[in-house]
Amino acid sequence: MGARYFGAAVRRREDPRFLRGEGRFVDDVTLPGLLHAACVRSPHAHARIRSIDAAPARAMPGVAAVFTHADLARWLKPLPLFGAAPPGLAAAVRFDVRQAPQLALCKDVVRHVGEIVAMVVADSRARAEDAAEAVAVEWEPLTALTDMVAAGEAGAPLLYPEWGTNVAVGFSHAIGDAERALAAADVVVEETFRIQRYVGMPLETRGVVAQWDRRDGTLTTWNSTQVSHFVQQGLVAALELPPHKIRVIAPDLGGGFGTKASGYPEDVLVPLAARALHRPVKWIEDRREHMMAAAHARHQTHTIRLGARRDGTIVGLADRIWLDLGAYNVWGIVLPYNTVAHLIGPYRIRDMTVDVKGVVTNKTPNAPYRGAGRPETVFAMDRAVDCLARRLGVDPADLRRKNYIRTDELPWDFGMPYRDGNPLVYDSGDFPAALESALAAAGYDAFRREQPALRARGLWRGIGISGYVEGTAIGPFEGAHVTVDLTGRVRVATGAVSSGQGHETSFAQVAADALGVPLDWITVVGGDTAAVPFGVGTFASRSGVTAGNSIADAARQVRAKLVAAAAALLEAAPDDVDIEDGKAFVRGAPASAVDLGAVVQASIPTFARPGVATPDFEASAYHHVPTVTYASAVHVAQVEVDPGTGAVRLLGYVVAHDCGKVINPTIVEGQVHGGVAQGVGGALFEEMVYDAEGQLLTGTLMDYLVPSATDLPRIETVHLEFPSPRNPLGMKGLGEGGAISPPAAIANAIDDALAPLGVRVTETPASPARVLALIETRRP
Amino acid sequence: MKPAPFEYFDPRTVDEAVALLETHGDDAKVLAGGQSLVPMLALRVARPAVVIDVNRVAGLDGLRQDGATLSVGALVRQRALERWAPERAPLLGTAIRHVGHAAIRARGTVAGSIAHADPASELPALLLCLDGSVVARSRRGTRTIAASEFFQGPLTTALAADELVTETRWTLPPAHAGWGFREMARRQGDFALVGVAAVVTIARGVVASARVVIFGAAPTPLRARETERALTGQAATATVLADAAQRATAGLDAVSDIHAPAAYRVSVTRTLAARALADAAARARETA
Fold this sequence. Notes:
The complex is a heterodimer.
Chain A (H helix, E strand, L loop, with lengths): L14 H5 L15 E7 L5 E7 L1 H4 L4 E6 H4 L14 H6 L3 E2 L11 E2 L5 E7 L2 H10 L1 E6 L6 H4 L15 E9 L2 H7 L2 E11 L9 E7 L4 E6 L4 H12 L6 E4 L15 H13 L3 E4 L2 H7 L4 E11 L5 E11 L9 H8 L10 E8 L14 H19 L3 H8 L8 E6 L5 E4 L4 H12 L1 H13 L3 E13 L7 E5 L5 E5 L8 H13 L6 E5 L16 H28 L6 E4 L2 E4 L2 E7 H8 L14 E4 L7 E13 L6 E11 L6 H21 L29 E6 L21 H12 L14 H10 L3
Parallel strand pairs in A: 1-13, 11-12, 15-16, 21-22, 28-29
Antiparallel strand pairs in A: 1-6, 2-5, 2-7, 3-6, 4-8, 8-16, 9-14, 10-11, 10-13, 14-15, 17-18, 19-27, 20-21, 20-26, 23-24, 24-25, 27-28
Helix pairs in contact in A: 8-9, 12-20, 16-17, 17-18, 19-20
Chain B lengths: L6 E3 L4 H11 L3 E4 L5 H6 L7 E4 L9 E4 L2 E5 L4 H11 L1 H6 L6 H6 L2 H7 L5 H8 L3 E6 L2 E6 H4 E3 L2 E2 L6 E8 L6 E8 L6 E12 L2 E10 L6 E2 L1 H7 L6 H9 L15 H26 L1
Parallel strand pairs in B: 1-3, 2-3
Antiparallel strand pairs in B: 4-5, 5-10, 6-7, 6-10, 8-9, 11-12, 12-13, 13-14
């Protein structure tokens, strides 16, 4: 099998339809008799429902139904919760975990602005919204918790009185003896860093369409989700139907980023409404709903201490970490432990102690978003390293050179588990090489030589570095099913949903090579539960590795069946038959070549003869990954700070990264660019702001600032390819990486630009107001 | 995000439009480019019982220069002014590119932005800086409201409920005047955190006249009168300009929001005033 497509910069096959406006997103699904849903949402952060009067709304024109908890109580089961510690992890770390069940329609107490208390279904969305305003809810406001640190203290008002605390995930963990190491260190820096609440913000909001077929009792639902099989499982429980009676289709998605990987109330409410009304129902989340009710993310506080010897050798690390989890703690230990497992990153540190408090507050529930704890923890660590460099009077690049783990030290065993419970052991990569190639591409040495002259001319320019090592492609598997049709053309189905990553291209490249057929013979179907029975979904930088290896496996099985049939047809031994470019042939006898369609057709019985082989040219694979594989990168940002306004302009950005074997470098670069854009958002622009009463102040995209093209610099990508030994294709996950390091790299660059003032960026986003305030603390 | 129900009218003449305004007055909103009104309707922040769409009203699309006076009909899109201005009114031509994005300017009207009176938007500040006025029609007659009287508070103007803006008028600076425009926004196209527009004329090295307007910092665009006084009659030296810029915040009651506290706006007002005045002085000398 030759690698004809794997590694090639094949043009994205899905782009023509997107560029022509012919994508089919969930809102493009229209059905005869379609009804439209709108939600009645809590205006309070924390309140008890005294009563709901839906009668006036039910009487309004066009209204088909209004559902409250009382109307659907029989069918409303707690929404799914995630993030229990797997056995290997639970054995090593003593977690104190509390999670609260949430109902799709709130029964008695709301715990964040935007929580759903009723759903209105009408003949148009406008009429549904009119009626939603007419649903009268009598509220009894309760005290809102908005400060994660204060809420985590003993004596704070309680979100769940039965818990006796607001700490939903508490644990301490240590490797080595950090306190002894810090006590023996020549230098210890300590700082508190705050990473704001910022979110995935896909261009396409969420949405659900559901159609109930009363003839055979089946439900079909289109859902803008990253995890269609997971939505199916939720509906199995809610509708009390077997999985094969529920088809979940994720159509084209306009971004996911983790925001669309949670289980949501509407996933269940829209199908319940469709079944109750015997009419198809559509709900499309509007941007205001998205801001207040789709999963939020980030939001941590770190008080970190980092110790070193005078020669720059880092000896120990201690970190107190608070995470604002929003209400309910939907994701269990995922974010808190991800944060801990990625704190050390590329540094050679054997002594670490952490104390972690994941705290519930009256805000929208937090969920993993592109990076999922890594951008926050890398911010704390790489900011602390730069503080240490300044204290020691050494260049931040040199401090990293001294402390990055070298290739001769791999595999590097932390002596603690990863989040999946398996040992945290770096499998491959070259962190010093990533550092050197990023510095070279950024012209680091030349910039350092030029910087004093720039300062003398009044140009406040700085350069900042951040690196990470990321556990990617969490298992346990992804499903793939490969089928060859009567003409030899191929359908590849997988549970992995493409939310813009280009699966229709990259997975076709993998399958085409494994089968020996032209790329354009292949159709890739993702996220349709009818196409593959078991699947997991796209998140955690996992689809390339998990689905890619399953697709290769299934395609090889099918190829073996085609070879066997072709051998029968060509009257040759299977070992002598090969397939290339869609033709089977006897090696050394090119004239024997027959089209794969002819092989399939010869296998199908006719009135005259049986087939040459069983016409079974399909196969499934569920490749199991032993544990995550470690991708890594070093980012270098260059900025200019306007000392009069505090404005930060990005002058350049370099990413030197290793994601193992690359299927398609164009797609990889696109992923890196998108991730960096979101990281720049976190560094400079984006913040979900709540007031002290838990009211969301950033309710629109005029207040919540996503960077646009004019806010981004040219991004230079350096590909380093260190194959992973942990999967046959040698790949590592890539999706999230770009978003991890920008906040740290950019904040380091700002500090560097302002170095003569000796100020520290301790909080993101580094908005003009914050940066100017820092500058003004040092002005006479 | 669908608007609450409203009654919709699309008059074809100014007389029909003002008759509708007389009838519906406070219950009505006038729809022109819709770049502010439509999002407010969708968010149900604005809930007018009546929307009067003036896009089909005849005779409101004129863009005419008569000597130093530029008359801009109420339906002239921002993009049209943007195309007209660069050679003839470079301050306007530069500033208008800060209004939203090209797609917004293609639809948004000059008069609509002024009637909407967002304190952080550029065109109201420019109207004040260029000694402009608003022509308003009602069944009661036509009146001209000076920009200095027009802006009364955030989204609040001197326009009566039955009045329709038919035109805005601008006084174009003489060719030898220098100008400066500086704006600090979070992103390209966002509303200003702070902006400063300045027009300065210099004769024989002495500032003959100065108009300096601050926007984004306070509930309305404001003349920086202390700055103007400190400049007028003085030699246009770097020291005088810098000192005058420091006075831009005299009496300024700056606003705070999630993007910047008042103290930031005060500090940056001085910074941008200094830069805008330096630009204006440099340009004035170039063309004097």
